[in-house]
Amino acid sequence: MSFVDLEKQGAVGIITMNRPEALNALNEAVLRDLDTVLDQVEADDEILVAVVTGAGRSFVAGADIGQMSTFSAVEGKQFGAFGNRVFLKLENLTKPTIAAVNGFALGGGCELSMACDIRVASEKAKFGQPEVGLGITPGFGGTQRLARIVGMSNAMEMILTARNIDANRAKEIGLVSYVVPAEELMDKALELANAIAKNAQVAVRQSKAAMRRGIQTDVATGIAYETEAFGLCFSTEDQKDAMKAFVNKEKVASFKNR
């Protein structure tokens, strides 16, 4: 049995965390399955954008506390390293990713959503990093990604108080882009995914890579990444077709993605 499902809707791959009886909590088996599914998404040329969501009433309620409760320091470090490796793989997919947060996104769940490029939340969603209340730090990138997304003060408050926030507060601080009724969540995520999929994919992926790499460094180095990406795009058929169409006051019917 897989704890992570993958289905395709056109050019969109839908990744569903599927351990609803445990609110999709992350243990080693779930992380292994996610790791495998991410490889499948990367290798599938038909998938241009991925949406990550959860089965049942939870996105991911966190890491599996029952499993972690008996860890030694060495085992805790190994588990954190494994989870971080998988989440870095998600963050660094060449294909854009959208988190459709349908419910609890706590601890590892909040961290999973932050490893995605765009976040959309149901009105029922709850976000939090409760780890200090359990005697640990965030372990799957929370201390690093949260401040980059919402700013240091908001990140410090969330992590150090261990308090959860609702979807509206998450939008207010920039953790999510949209808050929608629960029944409209996947429609919104798929709308965004399909809008991305309609564009020139070499340019989309180069833009994502330049942003992901640039945010880790100084502006001058980031601009150097952008300049390389910008120049590379001029070697593509899509650039030639789209600019020729624009000059002729026409529109490209579809991109070749090469």
Mean pLDDT reading: 96
Pattern of helices and strands: EEHEEHHEEHEEHHEHEHHHH
Distance, first to last CA? 37 Å
Beta fraction: 15-25%
Read across the widest sheet, the strand sequence of neighbours is 1-2-3-5-7-10
Helix fraction bin: 40-55%
Count of alpha and pi helical runs: 11
Reported for the largest beta sheet, the result is: 6 strands, mixed
**Low-pLDDT ranges:** none
Specify the overall morphology: globular
In total, the number of strands is: 10
Compute the gyration radius: what is it? Answer: 19 Å
Structural class: alpha/beta
Report on this model:
The chain is of the alpha/beta class. It contains 11 helices and 10 strands. The protein has helices at 28-43, 65-68, 73-91, 108-114, 142-150, 152-161, 167-172, 185-197, 201-214, 219-233, 237-247; strands spanning 4-9, 12-17, 49-54, 58-60, 97-101, 104-106, 118-122, 126-128, 165-166, 178-180. The strands form 2 sheets. A 6-stranded mixed sheet has the order 1-2-3-5-7-10, sandwiched between helices. The chain has a 4-stranded mixed sheet with strand order 4-6-8-9. A hairpin with a 2-residue loop joins strand 1 (4-9) and strand 2 (12-17). The radius of gyration is 19 Å and the shape is globular. It starts with a strand and ends in an 11-residue tail after the last helix. The model has no long low-confidence stretch (mean pLDDT 96).
